[in-house]
Amino acid sequence: MQLAACDSKIAFEQLVQRHHASVRSYCIRVVGAALGEDVAQEVFVALYRQRGSYVPSGRFRSFLFTVAGRRCKNALRNRKMQPQSAQTEERESPDTDSLDALLLEERRRRLHALVATLPEAQRTAIAMRFSAGLDYSEIAGAVGCSEPTARTRVFLGLTKLRALCAKRGEL
Amino acid sequence: MRCPTDDAWMNAALGDVTVNTRSAMLAHERTCERCRSAHQDQLQLLSDLKALPALHESEDAFVASVMARCAKADDSPPEAREPTRVLRFAPWVASALAAAAMLALAATRPFEDADPSLAPAAARGAARIESGGSPMKQEPLALAELERSDMESVTPRMSAPVRTGAPRERPRAGSSRASAWAETQRAAEFDDTDRRQARGGSRERGGAAAVASADVFLARGAILSPLAGAQLHGGDRLAVRVTNKAAQRRFFMAFAIDAKGEVHWVYPAYLDAHTNPEAPALSARQAARMLPETVELADVAEGTLRVVSMVSERRMTVREVEDRLASLPTGALPHVFPESMIREWRCTWQRR
Q1: Helices marked H in chain B — which ranges?
Q2: What is the pTM of this model?
């Protein structure tokens, strides 16, 4: 990021290549498949615009997901939409066609629909932990809370998910 | 050891227990059916949560789009920030103070000092300034900036459904109809030996065409944007970007299926119902490039539009694809073309 701040486009491109998968996954999980890709692009463009004022005072991934979290929140607010399941659209994987794979796919689709019903703090923490692969300290840095709080949010979210799944016979 | 609670199993699945506790729990799990089931459920839940969502754009396409938008950001002024609450009212306060000052001056100065020509002059000046300032026009995301080298010869291709002559026999007439495109200039193959680039070791990981892809974008004028979730209408065009990192050549096709199930061909062009065009080829180790034509769809039914790209090892024909699509029961494309790499973008077609 410091190289990118010095107007190195190659460095910024590498930055995008390194982090795009986790950012896209996170955005798709939070705002839905239709908007997620676009919001993820906006995250990197915002990062690019702010590169001159970047101060490496903490973990870069925390900073990146702070930007991502705000962009997702703005997208949800501006378009007055509710978070959608990320997997409302057909998946493109052509490699399996067994019944088991279809069932697995369907179960995951329902699970992510349930994630969308969680409170925002827990939903964000779970998306950062599992979709983006952040550790607890990075989540804490991104959302501005303590590490134990981040851990608690993930745990509470999972507990609620487990209860919802059990109620609907998913588990 | 007594049966751990579900929360304890959750902590264990998250790795938030000590090594000794975890060992004891796992030892207990081997002897307790209920705990084994609970633990498996927790692991399954985490595994499902970690499953990545379907990404509609390939890595290359995504990075290219981001870099193009960044290049555009360099040219445009920085984003206007919303003024703070204090600054938001500053113009009103300044105006009020200026008005008060003017009133005070008018009250203290004799009327004959005033020059009546000044006011209209000032007013005219203000008018000129207002009319001279054009609204900020956002520069479009130029196709050429995304693929500067490849987009020099982009050709807009107008569409006109061609259903002339006797239609060929179709086993399921009406379920699938070909739309063909005018201005037929098209290369049958996109072998591009001049653009071959040495790549690293083979990254092919099984699958028919895991390292080759065809990405379809929405092109509005010179603006290029992702297709997924977009609302399309007449005048919108489709642009296709292809890449093939494999050591063997691949074949690709792109088409759209509208709400009535009609097939609109993008690549290859389908001009005559008596012909049976074949899938264009992608040469081995071909770097990503935009194809030289953008395609405008015509006679599209209002509603959901599924845009599909397909890359395969075998060269297929339009007729073969349409026949298979006609047997499509529920839209499960990967099951209809198991040998192909399918990408699908769902969008909406609206009449203007």
Answers
A1: 6-14, 19-29, 33-50, 59-75, 85-88, 90-108, 118-132, 143-146, 318-326, 333-336
A2: 0.42
- Which tens digits make up the pLDDT trace of B276-307? 899 999 888 887 788 878 888 888 888 889 88
Q: What is the pLDDT of residues B94-109, one digit of tens each?
A: 788 888 888 877 666 5
A16–B66: do the CB atoms touch at under 8 Å? Answer: yes
Angle between helices B19-29 and B6-14 (to 10 degrees): 120
Q: Which two tokens stand for residue B327?
A: 């047997």
CB count within 10 Å of CB B46 equals 15
What DSSP string describes B64-78? Answer: HHHHHHHHHHHHSPP
ipTM of the complex: 0.73
Residues 6 or more apart whose Cβ sits within 8 Å of residue B34? B3
What does the angle CA A101 – CA B343 – CA A105 come to, to the nearest 5 degrees? Answer: 20
Residue pair B16/B22 in contact (Cβ under 8 Å)? The answer is no
How far, in Å, CA of B347 to CA of B306, rounded? 6
B window 27-86, beta carbon within 8 A of A: 41-42, 44-46, 48-57, 59, 62-63, 65-67, 69-70, 73, 78-79
Rounded-to-integer distance, Cα B235 and Cα B237, Å: 6
- Helices A99-115 and A147-167: crossing angle, nearest 10°? 120
Tokens of A146: 């303590």
